[in-house]
Amino acid sequence: MSCPGCHPQTYLGIRSPGTLLASVIYEVTKTSAVNCAACSERARQMNEWGWIGCWQNRDIIIQWMVEEARNLGHKVDDNSVRDLLFAAIKDRLS
Question: Which residues of the chain have pLDDT under 50?
Fold first, then answer.
């Protein structure tokens, strides 16, 4: 399923991290980052960081995800988001 407004950027066939995360969030929530200025900016920042930069900044990314989930009324903590993020990465890489 594609994410409206998400433009897949690939490197060796793998999407850029921000674009990939935006598409996964869209698949789960049916909400596009295009409709959220902060989300679009964060996806752009992740793409700029690249895969290694995102790994180095994973705690920031997890905080962003916790913040947005709480804004939507979900009760989450850093550990549950970290576990979900790592599970999604593992799933995408397998």
Answer: 1-12
N- to C-terminal Cα separation, the chain: 18
3-state secondary structure of 7: coil
pTM (global) more than 0.85: no
CA distance 74 to 57: 23
- DSSP track, 38-78: HHHHHHHHHHHHHHHHHHHTHHHHHHHHHHHHHHTT----H
In the numeric block, the tokens 């991290």 are attached to 17
**Own/partner long-range contacts of 60-67 (Cβ < 8 Å, ≥24 apart):** 61/21, 61/85
Of 39, 36, 32, residue with least CA distance to 5: 32
| Residue-range domain boundaries for the chain | 10-93
